[in-house]
Structure formats: C-alpha cells, structure tokens
Amino acid sequence: MYKIGVIGDYDSVCGYSVIGFYTEYASTREEAKEILLRMLKENYAVIYMTEEFFFEVNSDFCVVLPLPESGTGLGESRIEGFIEKAVGSKI
Amino acid sequence: MILNVNATRMELTRLKKEYRIAVSGHKLLKDKCDEMMRQFLIIARECRELRRELESAVGNVNKGFAMASAIMGEQEFKTALLMGGKEISLDVAEKNVMSVPIPVFSYEKTNNPPSCSEDFAAPELAQSIALLDGYKDKIIHLAELEGAVARLAAELEKTRRRVNSLEYVMIPNYQDTIKFIRMKIEENDRSNTTRLLKVKDMMIAENIEAKHNQR
Asked: Which domains does chain A have, with CATH numbers?
C-alpha cells in the first residue's frame, strides 16, 4: 500500500491533510526539493507539489505533478509540453 | 549513404535480408506509433479538461480555507485542522496501453466524510473540507492521467525517432548499398567476360601463328 504526498506552503496545502493526504510544508524551493527527494525514497505513489515549488523529476514509479490550483498555469503548460513532445508540434 | 561493406554476393544476401527486416519493422513501428498517438490524444485531452476543471474548483476551495483562517484566527484554524481524516492507502496497479505500463490507482473509500474539530470551526472551513473531499477522486484520477500522459509521451517520442531513423536513414542506406553492390558485381562480371573474350582471341591468334610456323 502506498501513500499520497503533498508538498507546499501551509496556506495552499493545509486542507489536504484532512482528506487523507500526507502533507509536508516547505517555505523555499530548496526545502521542497529536499522533502521531495526524501519522499521519493519512501513508499509514495503520487506526490503533488504547489506550482511555486514544482520541478520535474524522473521517477519510474512515483507520479510527481503540480497541485491543481489557480496559479501560473504551469500544470496546463506542462500537459501542452507533453503533447508537443509526443506529436512533434503544438496542436 | 553507402555502408562500409565488402561488395560480395554474401554481403548482398545479408543486406537484402536486413533490408526486408527493416521494411517490415518500419511498418510495424509506424502502426504502433499511430495507435499509440490515438490513445495518447484521448488521454491527454481528458487530462487537460480535468486539470482545467480542478484548477478553478480547487482555487475556490482555497479561497474558502483562506476565509475560514481569517475568521477563526491562525491558531484556532490550525487546531481545527489537526483532527485530520484517515490517511489514504493507495493501491497501485498497472494497465498496458500499447505495451506502455500506465498507473491505475485505487483506494478503499470510507463512508465517514472527513471533518474538522467542530468546537472551533467556522462553517466556511467545514464547507471547504467537504468540497475538497468531493474532489478527492478527481485529484487522484488526475495523477493517474498525468502519469499516463508522461509515460506515453516519452514512449511516443522514442518510437517516432525509431520510425524516422528507419525511414530516412537505415532503409535508404540499405537501398543505396544493395544498389552499389549489385552494380559492382555486374561490373566485375562484365570485366570477367571481356577478359575471357580477350584470352580466347589471344589463344586463337596463338593457334593460327603455330599453324603458320608448322608450314
């Protein structure tokens, strides 16, 4: 059995602990990175990160993705990036 | 480009065999690429729509949390959230889409909705938690879809590169090399025939000269 993790600043992620996600609070990108690297070694299957702290990591098992929140539109542009990578052009 | 091989019949047979394999491999990979692209676009479209929906919905939930925090005060807000719900333990399975394993998540759903400590809580907090709990399934499904999109995109890129390399590099190289070896062998044959004719002429001339000398 695996866990779901959420990394971000307190205000953005506090609610997720109530619905059963493991939340970790970070105040800087470096701190978030450290937490993420630690989580990747543990049994997390999904890790959400706030857009502010999000960065791409290569993991075969764990899915790391930006938390859906009305922010910079990073989540959607990331999906566009995948489409561009797969198709070879913007559609 | 002509490959660096010896122009012999053995090499020609080997290259012809490799050329046939490259052509059938190219066809198979192209079919795989097309089908994978079809499935990828369906998943990517669903993923994009779900993210759009969740981004606006979760944005409203966050506003609710901010409102509750402002009403209750930071300390009370934190205390109310301490009474967290039961942590989810996720079951991870894999589904095969064109031989790409994509994650499928499932978890045991409980009938008790998560709640906060109601002694301190503002109604906005309870509402926001209920809303967020309602989106929980979709948030987890989004992870599933994004995981699938990322893996399929990586595999599609690899397959497309393979198809292009076969189509634009390997197959033309084989064709050029096979043509080159054929021409080289034909040239050798022609040169052998000419040599034989020449030798035959020389032998005939020698015979005629020998007959003249005998007389």
From this structure: 3-87 (3.40.50.10580)
